[in-house]
């Protein structure tokens, strides 16, 4: 083993980095080889080894040793092929190394460096690549710059401009143009030309040419003429390769040319604006003195200043900035008095718009009105500048059509006609330059503007409007204009159709795309060249030699390691390798190199002898050479080197003929033997072979060799190469003999591989123009043999040949007659390459020319010119274009041309129509089969020309049809012909000619199944009035029968009906198609049972739609015998299906059907597609025998179908409701047909149907109503009185099923009908509604102005009906009717006045009272019995008065409430008094209730301002009003959520806001109503749909504010109780909508959180409102809440930190904190004696202990007290201690209040109360430590309070405080407290004062036999004492309810005894005083008899029992009753 081998072996053990940086170059070289092998073996791009290797290449590619460097590049290439885009992190450093070290190396090194660069690009490291290139082109060595430019060139040409940004390249090029090295300059030119291929010539010119020298400009200009190819990428980046595996390449012998390029290959259009850098112009503008100049007085200075701006703004791209001030200045200058200044300013604006584009949009909008206004100027310079600027603004994207609608509307209403027309012209330009999508969005806005402008008085404006409409039609089609065109007269319609040029211009925009995509297509030769990859940028120049090479991507594919297969570890799908792009041009190779490559293939001696100068040696050597070649078995690998050797030695300059012959034989052998013969070998040989052909000695061998070449590489390539050789060769024999060889080649191979256009051009330009006769004769022979293959059409290409040659050509063509398909090739081509097939023409092979460039916009505009001469010239121009194209054209770009010609088929000039028909025929002939796809329906317009009454026009049309038929085929024409035959406008003569033409075409056919489509129109024509048409149709029918066969005809008889069917059956019988026993009735029944397709073409028979013009055809009926047989057969069929259900609703989905129904009040007949859908629905849901009858064209069958429904009506009620919409559509069709018998039957059935719906409680939906009611209203003016009466009654019946309020709009729409009878009926119906349903339609009375407008009609009956209707309204409304009739003329007012007076007199005669009186009387009755209407309807009563309604039935209930029969005398759209307003709010719809709420708001405002008795009246109704509004909240919100306006929601919330702003009104609202309202408001606050409503954010804000007002002003006790109750989980049915995205628990949690927030707000102010609330009620609600939860649940929730529970505890804590131990005196509504004890007691004790511990109060008893019994042990000591402590606590609290400035008056009042109740208590004894001043202050305060009390003045805002304990055992120093009653508020002498209860603490104990005490009587009469005692005695033996203990009753009985003992002391002045209001009920004392005495009030007080107030007593009594009844269980 050598030293090197040892070294290498040892080095392999080293790490990669050490090996790659080893000092021995061989180690480094070996390491790079191994690294490349490892990278080749890696199949996963994510392999971690790749990340390790990436760092090595920075140094390895910069190796100083050239071979090592080359191997390093190999390793890098392998690495890049294996890696993915993650390798891009190493790109920058590696690319920099390659640029620094590799671009100046050996050619192979440079080539591999370029390959690596391209791989970096493939891995998306484009930025790093271009950064490296920027460094490379700055290299001082030109040798390094050229490869850099070349690799950029290759990258751009392979990857395209989407991957390689052209902007970067454009920045590099300018410095290369001035390079000192010519190779660099040449390469930069080539790169520039390549850029032109990608981004277009103009952008490159405008950016680069200004930076070039003039010489280079000229050179590039010359080169640019050769650049016409559109480029497309040939290579994809790696990520795209991963997404799309390389597609299979299917070799096709007949591949299409470049015409069939996919749209994806079209290069991207790059905007030049994006390629340039922005320029700041504001800074230089400041320096230029612009601002001073524009203010100058001289116009010239102003102009110069603006001109400077224009110049600065002319740059292509302007930097964005603040141009606001500039635009304001320019706006002033636009109106400058000097025209030159104005023009300059306008041009400056245009430049700014172009340079700023969308950054100038705001300023453009600002300036647009002034620019449009300026269009009034007539100066050409100014108008031109304005036009250009406006167009620039739009094209630059500063403006869009959607934003300028209002500006355009203003401009087209300008008083100056020039402004109007110019604006419309500009809008037309905008439309024409926009895309289809943009126009589709805005056409609805612009079409009405243009339609209005058509009525302008100025012709220019009208023409501009026509142009704008035509532009829209061409862009988006005719559909948007259909409705608008209905309003135009025929003249304008015709003019517009001429301008549009087509009936359906939707095809036009599509054709533009075709033109664009095809405009860049290449000749085939250029396309083939473009598909090859150029290595050198200089190769783009025409003077440079082109070197071709296969791209890197192909090499990669050939290596067999695709990325896809790598990733899948070889398991991925096998993708066939793409065919390699073969290199055609051979590179130079020296003889030495050839010999070195030859090796041992040929003996060296032979090669040496071939070089010999002795011809014999050469001949011997060549023969030896031939033998050796023939001995080689596998020639494929050696073909090129052998051919190169022969071309070198002996070479083509060999003089010896024998050697030449042998040499040609060898080449022929090689080309015929090798499986693949390279094209470069052909190129090497072709020049020499062609010269040998010219030599007679070698001609045979050379021609044979050429033929062999054709077999090897296809004749197309040989021909293409020979053209140039023969054209440029000096020997004429080469040309003539070459042409003769071509004759034999075409005879052998045919024309499928030859580009005929190039061949014919070569023959015309070279062969026939030659001066040599032999050449001309050879050319004539060549054309003759072409004639054999392509036919006589070839003569069309030879029209410009000399006459002498034409005769020779004709003679030669006669010798070679056209054989067509019989002329099969004799030889085949071995190569199967798609590039070898160059069929450029079509199936016939003749070339076709692309005329898209010749179809210019000018030509198309000329075809639409108003001048007929110009239109004629344009048509002739089209003919000339066809002639120049030899009547052989491609379809590219002809779409617009055909569209324009289509418009000329409707020209007013008949001669032009005939010229157009000829041109269309010529186009069809020239285009061939593609005409069918390109024409877009022009054939239908051609066929319409047969309707002309002139024979020559019809003959011309038939000639066009002949041309069309020759181009396409009859089967493609049949659909158009079928449509034309049923067109009534075609006329009898046209139909006859068309049938004759069809017969002529069918005669020549033996089999044509598509002719069956002609059967139906042919059968219909056999019943035509014209005998000629019938005869022609019969002839055609016979031909149809012959070519289709009898079976096909019989199968299609189902499409034929009526008399036509009978005739067809007779004809079939005559042809033997039917046997004798065949029943023709079966065919008829089949036609009836099957779906009728007649309506798809016209409506001659479908649904019996027989118009008057078709009655003659319908009168030819089938004989009656056949009809009877048909009936019998149908009845038999009916029997077979009787077992099925009449209506099958199994798959019915009514909601889906109704969703597509658009509600319209105006009647429109059903469209064709709607009729077809109806047919499908009827057949789907109705039984066969029923739908046969319903869909029959015979009205008798239809009547039978209705009778079937009528009989089955009781049993199919639900099914009918499900398909009611379908049935109503069918009724609409019957109404439209006007068949009296059928209509009478329909009107007989409909009332029964409506009665059934009413009985079922079904209400018609909006969709059903909009289907039927508009039709019924429109047809109600029928000319038959009987039908009118039935419809009148039916309309009144519908009101019961659908409601008057919703029917009223349909009736109003009927007032606009064109039929006088309909308007009369509708006016009478309005009167009926006013008379009977005034309350329901009161919200729509403003519409009476439509009725009033009818009083101005000419027709007397119409006026009379309108006057009668208004007179009825006057009867109901009185003089208020004048508010609704609108503006009327004096004459109308006079008529109305007379009619109203007459009505008043009539009412007096009939004793009906005065107009409007009935309404007022009814209002009074409603006011007295306000609940009557609600009581009559249970549902309505619940809805109005109940606080909670069921949301599930809400929608259904609303339907009924809308139809509650409100009082009929309500007089106006808006109610006029309070009670009527409440009724409207309660019972009206959301829209109607708005009027009621307006009245309520008005009344509230007035009452609030006056503060008199009016407010007292409103207070009485406050609860009812709020209840109505609370229920209305849900209705209005639900109504708005359906898409209606939120107006009603706002009114409801506003009315509630006004109510709750007033405290009196708010306090009058009951607790149940408040519960309903608060619940509703909180639910809608949480509803997620509200923000999406109209003004949703405002509604949410209003809901929030209203809720705050309620909490502030409503009764706080009710608010607390309601909110605490709402803390419980809410019933799911109360939510407005079901939960969609959240659970019910989540929703309840949100609701509880909201309730908690409300409680927090109330609790915060509890300290200041503690005396305003009823603590007993609040504590009761807290008790109920806690009891419902239970202790277990409370413990669970406490651990989970439950918000509702925590809130309840907080409220209880605050109450205890504020009231202290006195809180225990407010438990009268809590069953404190129940077992176990109520939970609330434990919480109160806990709070008292906690607060006492915090020294915030002193507890009243021992800590830990748990028993709250009313009676304790007889020990009085604890009681005495407790009472003393409580008194001290009360006094301490009062003194604390007095010491505070804010509460001092309250404290003094409470102290005064204490002194009055207990005068023996020494107040000042408690103030021993107080100052004298404080004592004096208290003494004075008490005196003042006493004076106030004597005067009857009591602070109304201060409630009475809780008195001290009931019993006090006073100390010896103090006497017992006197029970003196000083409560002035409860005094009967002050009835206006509110009764404020005084609460007492419960008495601890007392002794029945206490010898010291006399009972102190509370305020009870002896009657009450007796009653209570009796109650106690009676209840002793009552069975107690469950859960109630004897102890609880005993405690209450003891309490009652104490009350009895104190009853004797009640004074007489208190007998008649009412008890306090408890729970809203005032309890009055019953009368006292004289015998019942009372105990004297003079008894001294010895007992410790203090008197209790009424509230405590009533609380005890109430609890007693609850205990007896067991009502605590419910709590």
Termini distance?
110 Å
Q: Count all strands and give the number.
A: 2
Structural class: mainly alpha
Task: Estimate the mean pLDDT confidence.
Answer: 74
Strand residue percentage: under 5%
Q: Helical region count? A: 99
Largest sheet: 2 strands, antiparallel
Shape: extended
User: How helical, in percent, are the residues?
Assistant: 55-70%
- Spatial extent as radius of gyration: 53 Å
The parts where pLDDT drops under 50 for at least 5 residues are 246-267, 502-533, 544-579, 833-843, 1074-1134, 1421-1470, 1754-1777, 1852-1945, 1954-2014, 2019-2027
Looking across the biggest beta sheet, what order are the strands in?
A: 1-2
Detailed description of the structure:
The chain has 99 helices and two strands. Strand 1 and strand 2 (1977-1978) form a beta hairpin. With 2027 residues, the protein is mostly helical. The chain starts with a helix and ends in a 6-residue tail after the last helix. Helices cover 61% and strands 0% of the residues. It has a two-stranded antiparallel ribbon.
């Amino acid at each position: 083993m050598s030293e090197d081998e040892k070294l290498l072996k040892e080095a392999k053990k080293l790490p990669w980095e050490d090996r790659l940086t080893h000092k021995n170059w061989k180690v480094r070289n070996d390491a790079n080889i191994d690294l490349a092998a490892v990278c080749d073996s890696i199949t996963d791009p994510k392999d971690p080894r790749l990340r390790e290797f990436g760092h090595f290449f920075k140094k390895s590619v910069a190796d100083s040793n050239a071979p090592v460097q080359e191997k390093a590049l190999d390793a890098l290439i392998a690495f890049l092929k294996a890696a993915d885009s993650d390798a891009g992190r190493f790109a920058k450093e590696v690319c920099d190394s390659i640029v620094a070290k590799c671009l100046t190396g050996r050619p192979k090194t440079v080539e591999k460096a370029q390959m690596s660069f391209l791989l970096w690009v493939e891995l998306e490291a484009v930025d790093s690549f271009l950064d490296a290139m920027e460094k490379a082109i700055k290299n001082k060595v030109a040798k390094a710059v050229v490869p850099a430019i070349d690799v950029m060139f290759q990258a751009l040409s392979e990857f395209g401009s989407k991957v390689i940004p052209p902007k970067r390249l454009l920045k590099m090029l300018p410095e290369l143009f001035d390079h000192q090295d010519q190779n660099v300059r040449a390469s930069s030119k080539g790169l520039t030309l390549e850029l032109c291929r990608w981004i277009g010539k103009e952008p490159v010119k405008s950016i680069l040419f200004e930076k070039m020298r003039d010489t280079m400009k000229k050179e590039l200009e010359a080169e640019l003429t050769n650049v016409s190819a559109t480029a497309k990428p040939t290579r994809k980046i790696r990520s795209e390769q991963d997404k799309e595996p390389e597609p299979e390449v299917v070799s096709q012998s007949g591949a299409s040319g470049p015409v069939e390029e996919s749209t994806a290959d079209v290069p991207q259009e790059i905007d030049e604006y994006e390629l340039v850098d922005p320029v700041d112009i504001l800074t230089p503008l400041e320096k230029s003195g612009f601002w001073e100049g524009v203010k100058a007085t001289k116009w010239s200075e102003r102009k110069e200043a603006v001109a400077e701006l224009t110049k600065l703004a002319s740059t292509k791209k302007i930097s964005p900035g603040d141009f606001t001030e500039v635009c304001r200045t320019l706006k002033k200058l636009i109106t400058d008095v000097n025209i030159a200044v104005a023009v300059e300013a306008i041009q400056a604006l245009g430049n700014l718009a172009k340079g700023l584009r969308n950054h100038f949009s705001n300023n453009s909008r600002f300036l647009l009105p002034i620019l449009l206004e300026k269009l009034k100027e007539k100066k050409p310079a100014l108008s031109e500048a304005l036009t250009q600027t406006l167009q620039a603004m739009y094209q630059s994207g500063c403006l869009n059509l959607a934003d300028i609608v209002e500006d355009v509307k203003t401009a087209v209403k300008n008083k100056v006609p020039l402004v109007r027309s110019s604006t419309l012209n500009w809008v037309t330009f905008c439309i024409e330059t926009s895309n289809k999508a943009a126009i589709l969005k805005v056409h609805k806005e612009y079409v009405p503007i243009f339609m209005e402008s058509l009525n302008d008085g100025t012709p220019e404006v009208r023409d501009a409007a026509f142009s704008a409409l035509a532009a829209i039609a061409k862009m988006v089609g005719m559909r948007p204009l259909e409705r608008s065109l209905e309003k135009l007269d025929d003249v304008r319609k015709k003019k517009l159709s001429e301008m549009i040029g087509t009936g359906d211009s939707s095809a036009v925009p599509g054709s533009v795309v075709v033109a664009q995509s095809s405009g860049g297509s290449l000749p085939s030769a250029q396309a083939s060249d473009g598909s090859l990859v150029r290595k050198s940028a200089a190769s783009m120049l025409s003077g440079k030699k082109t070197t071709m090479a296969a791209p890197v991507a192909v090499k990669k594919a050939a290596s067999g390691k695709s990325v896809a297969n790598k990733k899948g570890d070889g398991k991925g799908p096998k993708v066939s390798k793409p065919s390699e792009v073969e290199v055609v041009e051979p590179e130079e190779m020296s003889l030495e190199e050839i010999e070195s490559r030859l090796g041992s293939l040929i003996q060296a001696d032979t090669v040496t002898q071939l070089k010999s100068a002795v011809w014999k040696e050469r001949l011997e050597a060549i023969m030896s050479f031939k033998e050796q070649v023939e001995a080689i078995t596998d020639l494929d690998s050696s073909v090129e080197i052998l051919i190169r050797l022969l071309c070198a030695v002996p070479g083509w300059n060999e003089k010896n003929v024998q050697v030449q012959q042998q040499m040609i034989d060898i080449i022929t052998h090689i080309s015929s033997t090798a499986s693949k013969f390279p094209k470069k070998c052909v190129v090497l040989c072709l020049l020499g072979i062609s010269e040998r052909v010219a030599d007679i000695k070698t001609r045979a061998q050379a021609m044979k060799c050429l033929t062999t070449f054709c077999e090897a590489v296809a004749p197309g390539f040989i021909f293409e190469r020979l053209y140039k050789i023969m054209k440029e060769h000096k020997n004429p024999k080469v040309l003539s003999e070459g042409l003769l060889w071509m004759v034999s080649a075409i005879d052998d191979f045919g024309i499928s591989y030859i580009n005929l256009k190039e061949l014919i051009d070569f023959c015309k330009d070279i062969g026939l123009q030659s001066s040599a006769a032999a050449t001309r004769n050879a050319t004539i022979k060549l054309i003759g043999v072409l004639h054999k293959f392509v036919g006589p059409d070839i003569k069309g290409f030879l029209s410009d040949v000399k006459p002498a040659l034409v005769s020779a050509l004709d003679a030669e063509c006669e010798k070679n007659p056209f054989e067509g398909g019989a002329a099969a090739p004799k030889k085949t081509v071995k190569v199967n390459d798609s590039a070898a097939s160059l069929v450029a023409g079509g199936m016939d092979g003749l070339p076709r020319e692309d005329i898209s460039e010749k179809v210019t916009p000018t030509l198309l505009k000329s075809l639409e010119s108003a001048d007929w001469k110009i239109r004629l010239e344009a048509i002739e121009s089209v003919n000339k274009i066809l002639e120049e194209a030899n009547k052989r054209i491609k379809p590219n770009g002809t779409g617009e041309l055909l569209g324009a010609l289509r418009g000329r088929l409707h020209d007013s000039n008949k001669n032009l129509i005939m010229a157009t028909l000829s041109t269309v025929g010529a186009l069809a002939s020239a285009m061939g089969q593609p005409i069918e796809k390109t024409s877009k329906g022009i054939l239908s317009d051609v066929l319409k020309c047969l309707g002309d009454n002139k024979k020559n026009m019809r003959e011309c049309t038939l000639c066009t049809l002949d041309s069309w038929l020759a181009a396409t085929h009859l089967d493609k024409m049949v659909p158009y012909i079928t449509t034309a035959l049923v067109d009534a406008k075609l006329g009898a003569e046209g139909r006859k000619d068309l049938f004759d033409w069809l017969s002529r075409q069918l005669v020549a056919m033996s089999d044509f199944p598509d002719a069956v489509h002609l059967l139906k129109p042919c059968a219909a024509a056999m019943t035509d009035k014209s005998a000629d048409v019938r005869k022609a149709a019969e002839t055609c029918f016979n031909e149809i029968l012959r070519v289709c066969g009898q079976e096909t005809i019989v199968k299609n008889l189902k499409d034929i009906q009526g008399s036509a069917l009978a005739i067809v059956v007779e004809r079939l019988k005559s042809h033997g198609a039917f046997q004798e026993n065949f029943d023709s009735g079966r065919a008829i029944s089949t036609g009836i049972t099957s779906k009728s397709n007649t309506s798809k073409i016209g409506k001659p028979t479908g649904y019996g739609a027989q118009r008057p013009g078709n009655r003659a055809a319908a009168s030819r009926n089938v004989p009656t015998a056949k009809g009877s047989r048909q009936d019998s057969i149908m009845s038999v069929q009916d029997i077979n299906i009787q077992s099925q259900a009449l209506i099958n609703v199994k798959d019915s989905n009514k909601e889906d059907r109704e969703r597509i129904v658009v509600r319209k009040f105006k009647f429109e007949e059903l469209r064709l597609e709607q009729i077809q859908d109806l047919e499908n629905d009827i057949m789907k849901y109705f039984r066969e025998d029923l739908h046969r009858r319903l869909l029959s064209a015979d009205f008798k069958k239809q009547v039978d179908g209705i009778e079937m429904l009528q009989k089955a009506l009781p049993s199919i009620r639900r099914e009918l409701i499900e398909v009611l919409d379908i049935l109503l559509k069918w009724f609409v069709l019957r109404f439209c047909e006007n068949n009296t018998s059928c209509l009478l039957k329909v009107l007989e059935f409909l009332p029964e149907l409506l009665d059934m719906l009413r009985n079922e409680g079904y209400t018609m939906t909006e969709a059903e109503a909009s289907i039927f009611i508009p039709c019924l209203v429109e047809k109600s003016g029928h000319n038959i009185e009987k039908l009118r009466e039935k419809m009148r009654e039916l309309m009144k019946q519908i009101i019961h099923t659908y409601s008057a309020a919703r029917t009223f709009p349909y009736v109003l729409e009927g007032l606009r009908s064109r039929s006088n009878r309909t308007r009369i009926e509708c006016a009478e119906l309005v009167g009926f509604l006013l008379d009977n349903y005034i309350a329901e339609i009161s919200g729509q009375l403003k519409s009476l102005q439509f009725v009033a407008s009818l009083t101005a009609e000419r027709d007397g009956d119409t006026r009379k009906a309108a006057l009668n209707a208004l007179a009825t309204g006057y009867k109901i409304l009185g003089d208020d009717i004048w508010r609704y009739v609108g503006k009327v003329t004096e004459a109308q007012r006079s008529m109305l006045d007379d009619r109203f007076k007459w009505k008043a007199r009539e009412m007096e005669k009939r004793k009906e009272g005065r107009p409007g009186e009935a309404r007022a009387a009814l209002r009074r009755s409603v006011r007295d019995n306000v609940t009557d209407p609600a009581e009559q309807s249970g549902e309505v009563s619940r809805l109005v008065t109940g606080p909670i309604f069921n949301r599930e039935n809400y929608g259904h209930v609303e339907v009924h409430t809308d139809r509650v029969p409100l009082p009929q005398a309500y007089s106006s759209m808006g109610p006029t008094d309070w009670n009527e307003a409440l009724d409207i709010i309660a019972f009206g719809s959301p829209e109607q209730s708005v009027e009621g709420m307006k009245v309520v708001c008005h009344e509230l405002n007035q009452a609030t301002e006056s503060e008199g008795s009016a407010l007292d009246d409103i207070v009485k109704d406050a609860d009812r009003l709020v209840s109505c509004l609370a229920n209305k909240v849900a209705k209005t919100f639900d109504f708005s959520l359906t898409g209606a306006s939120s107006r009603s929601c706002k009114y409801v919330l506003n009315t509630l806001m006004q109510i709750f702003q007033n405290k009196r009104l708010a306090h009058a609202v009951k607790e149940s109503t408040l519960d309903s309202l608060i619940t509703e408001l909180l639910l809608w606050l949480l509803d997620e749909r509200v923000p999406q409503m109209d003004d949703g954010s405002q509604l949410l804000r209003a809901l929030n504010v209203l809720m705050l007002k309620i909490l502030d002003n409503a009764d706080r006790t009710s608010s607390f109780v309601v909110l605490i109750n709402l803390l419980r989980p809410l019933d799911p049915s109360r939510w407005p909508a079901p939960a969609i995205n959240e659970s019910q628990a989540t929703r309840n949690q949100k609701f509880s959180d909201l309730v908690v927030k409300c409680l927090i707000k109330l609790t915060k102010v509890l300290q200041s409102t503690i005396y305003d609330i009823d603590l007993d009620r609040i504590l009761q609600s807290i008790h109920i809440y806690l009891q419902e939860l239970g202790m277990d649940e409370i413990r669970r929730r406490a651990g989970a930190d439950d918000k509702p529970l925590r809130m309840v505890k907080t409220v209880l804590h605050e109450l205890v904190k504020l009231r202290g131990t006195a809180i225990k005196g407010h438990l009268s509504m809590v069953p404190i004696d129940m077992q176990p004890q109520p939970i609330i007691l434990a919480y109160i004790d806990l709070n008292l202990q906690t607060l006492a511990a915090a020294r915030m109060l002193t507890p009243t008893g021992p800590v830990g007290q748990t028993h709250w019994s009313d009676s304790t042990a007889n020990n009085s000591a604890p009681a005495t201690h407790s009472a003393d402590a409580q008194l001290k606590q009360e006094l301490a609290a009062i003194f604390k209040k007095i010491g505070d400035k804010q509460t001092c008056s309250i404290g003094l009042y409470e102290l005064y109360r204490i002194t009055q109740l207990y005068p023996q208590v020494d107040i000042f004894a408690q103030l021993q430590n107080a100052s004298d001043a404080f004592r004096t202050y208290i003494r004075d305060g008490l005196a003042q309070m006493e004076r106030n009390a004597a005067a009857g003045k009591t602070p109304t805002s201060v409630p009475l405080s809780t008195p001290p304990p009931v019993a006090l055992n006073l100390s010896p120093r103090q006497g017992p407290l006197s029970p003196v009653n000083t409560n002035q508020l409860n005094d009967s002498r002050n009835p206006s004062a509110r009764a404020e209860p005084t609460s007492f603490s419960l008495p601890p104990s007392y002794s029945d036999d206490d010898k010291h005490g006399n009972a102190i009587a509370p305020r009870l009469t002896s009657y009450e004492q007796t009653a209570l005692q009796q109650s106690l005695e009676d209840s002793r033996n009552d069975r107690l309810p469950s859960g109630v203990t004897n102890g609880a009753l005993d405690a209450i009985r003891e309490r009652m005894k104490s009350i009895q003992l104190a009853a004797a002391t009640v004074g007489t002045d208190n007998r008649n005083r009412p008890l306090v209001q408890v729970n809203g009920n005032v309890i009055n004392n019953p009368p006292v008899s004289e015998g019942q005495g009372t105990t004297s009030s003079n008894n001294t007080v010895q007992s410790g029992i203090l008197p209790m107030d009424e509230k405590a007593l009533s609380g005890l009594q109430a609890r007693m009753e609850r205990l007896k009844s067991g009502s605590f269980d419910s709590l």
